[in-house]
Amino acid sequence: MPDDNQPHGLPTDVLRVDEGLVCGDDQPYFPAQLSEPQFAGDDEHGRRYYAVTPRFRRVVTDWVAVTVEATSDHLRFRWDGDDLIVIDDDAHEDDRDPASGPAVERIRPDAESRYTFQTWVWHVHDAAAGHLDDTTRTALARLATDDPSQIEIDTVIRYVVENTCPAADPQTLRDIRARHRTFADSPAAPAADSDSEETDDE
């Protein structure tokens, strides 16, 4: 019987061969290429901890940004062409001047058109956790493609809602995503790729 699992223990119809799953605290898992684990430190019991830096494709980066903005009280995002702008309302552009505006970070795609959130902490999926429900399998399988027309918006939103704590509001997710697309598609900041997924959005 052929092995229908990836090396990381997840089904081949869910993830690309070169990707694994990562998540932030109380967030859903998203597919990404993972760097080699880097030693992060020891805890009080002498256990060693390692960190990975995920690299996300653009279509996944978009959903990471939508999800985080919907569940954060201080982070906002917008697209400027191919660059993702991260606005942190809790941090100041000039640490010495509390009257300065919010801190702004520009995340540019690398040579392979992938995005990295350098200062964020990510958790790697535990393959031993095993079962993926139908919503998760369908959403992750859709996110494995770079063809936006193949992404079922309702399915991905349902997946995000079911896997955030507290649960994200579906309409908030839609509103944030629409706002991101408005910035990305504006004449001042042209998007690099056409995106026809709106046909499934309403």
Brief write-up:
By secondary structure, the protein is α+β, with helices and mostly antiparallel strands. 24% of the residues lie in helices and 24% in strands. A hairpin with a 6-residue loop joins strand 1 and strand 2.
What structural class is derived from the secondary structure elements? alpha+beta
Total number of helices = 4
Sheet with most strands: strand arrangement: 9-5-2-1-10
**Which residue ranges are poorly predicted, with pLDDT under 50 across at least 5 consecutive positions?**
1-5, 187-202
Rough shape?
globular
How many separate structural domains?
1
Q: Main β-sheet: number of strands, strand sense, barrel status?
A: 5 strands, antiparallel
C-alpha end-to-end distance: 42 Å
Quantity of strands, as a count = 10
% residues in beta strands: 15-25%
> How big is the Rg?
18 Å
Spell the H/E element sequence. EEEEEHEEEEEHHH
Q: Kindly state the percentage of residues in helix.
A: 10-25%
The overall pLDDT, averaged over residues, is 80
Description:
With 202 residues, the chain is α+β, with helices and mostly antiparallel strands. It has one domain (20-189). It has four helices and ten strands. Helix 2 (134-143) crosses helix 3. The chain is globular.
